[in-house]
Write a structure and sequence with these properties.
Layout (H helix, E strand, L loop, with lengths): L3 E5 L3 E4 L2 E14 L5 E13 L5 E7 L3 E4 L2 E9 L7 E7 L2
Antiparallel strand pairs: 1-8, 2-3, 3-4, 4-5, 6-7, 7-8
Length: 95
């Protein structure tokens, strides 16, 4: 895997020709292995393709994989903010 890149909550960075912002970092319910649900830290990624201005959002948590153009990124971690905005860390998935 590639190097980790941080995105602070309410800021954006460019990845593979896409502007990516991390918003709404909070605990959400997700399906748990073996049934039921579990609460885990998650974030909404607001994504814009700079080539065609297409926009969409994806809800992610640690381990989620996001495809941006020809590249894939894994969410390494999502951290709740305490005295400052929260933090989401992406790592490029290499072949």
């Amino acid at each position: 895997m590639g190097a980790e890149v941080e995105i602070r909550e309410t800021t954006q960075r460019e990845f593979s020709g896409h502007l990516v912002a991390a918003i709404n970092l909070l605990e959400r319910e997700f399906p748990a292995e073996g049934g039921g649900t579990q609460r885990v830290m998650s974030a909404v990624l607001s994504i814009m393709d700079t080539a065609d201005d297409r926009e969409w959002q994806e809800t992610v948590r640690a381990g989620s994989v996001v495809t941006l153009g020809a590249d894939r990124y894994c969410v390494a971690r999502v951290e709740r903010g305490r005295d400052a905005p929260g933090l989401l860390v992406l790592r490029q998935v290499t072949q």
